[in-house]
UniProtKB/TrEMBL annotation:
Enzymatic reactions: 3'-dephospho-CoA + ATP = ADP + CoA + H(+)
Record organism: Stigmatella aurantiaca (strain DW4/3-1)
Keywords recorded for this protein, A-Z: ATP-binding, Coenzyme A biosynthesis, Cytoplasm, Kinase, Nucleotide-binding, Transferase
GO MF, one example: dephospho-CoA kinase activity
Name of this protein: Dephospho-CoA kinase
Gene: coaE
CDD domains referenced in this protein's UniProt entry, alphabetically: DPCK
Enzyme Commission identifier(s): 2.7.1.24
Pathway assigned to this chain's UniProt record: Cofactor biosynthesis; coenzyme A biosynthesis; CoA from (R)-pantothenate: step 5/5
Pfam families the record matches: CoaE (PF01121)
Job description of the protein: Catalyzes the phosphorylation of the 3'-hydroxyl group of dephosphocoenzyme A to form coenzyme A.
Length: 179
């Protein structure tokens, strides 16, 4: 919705996919550390890797240690390129923003919030996950309620799309007003 309003959004999940594309050092390191996670086409089988790391905090930490520095570097390169183009505002869509302390260097935080049961149901539907798998993924993140104190703005996404859209427009106006 923010993109529709003209925002430049960098998506941490998209960047995470880029750093493990075939032929990258990131993929080579992940494949070496987590044997059996490459598909027949040589691409990362995200479902296999997810099943392995979301059930084991030590494995998840090992994956994060490999990928987070690469994601951070790619994010900085992208923000520098946007800055060189004269882009004044860049939004970083990152599920682990608070957990990784990345919010500290930002001008503000927009939290998209839903009650946990709804968050879990949406996750299960979006990723076709069983209950336990969805719970494991949610457990790997700080609960949304614990992120609230860090939020500059909050969008309650528990209603219909139009209610959410109205809140997003208000946040965008506030961002633009900051100058």
């Amino acid at each position: 919705m923010l993109r529709e309003l003209g925002a430049h959004v960098l998506d941490a999940d998209a960047i995470a996919r880029e750093v493990v594309e075939p032929g990258t050092q990131g993929l080579a390191e992940v494949a070496a550390r987590f044997p059996g996670v490459l598909g027949p086409d040589g691409r990362l089988d995200r479902a296999k890797l997810g099943a392995r790391v979301f059930g084991d905090p030590a494995e998840r930490a090992a994956l994060n240690a490999l990928l987070h520095p690469r994601i951070r570097e790619a994010f900085l390169e992208k923000t520098q390129a946007l800055d060189a183009q004269g882009v004044e505002r860049v939004l970083y869509d990152a599920p682990l923003l608070i957990e990784n302390g990345l919010h500290v260097g930002l001008d503000g935080v927009v939290l998209v919030w839903v009650p946990r049961p709804l968050q879990k149901e949406r996750l299960k539907a979006r990723d076709a996950l069983e209950d336990a798998a969805a719970e494991a993924r949610l457990a790997s993140q700080l609960p949304l309620d614990d992120k609230r104190p860090h939020a500059t703005w909050m969008v309650d996404n528990s209603g219909d799309r139009e209610a959410t859209r109205a809140q997003v427009k208000e946040v965008w106006r506030a961002l633009l007003a900051r100058g």
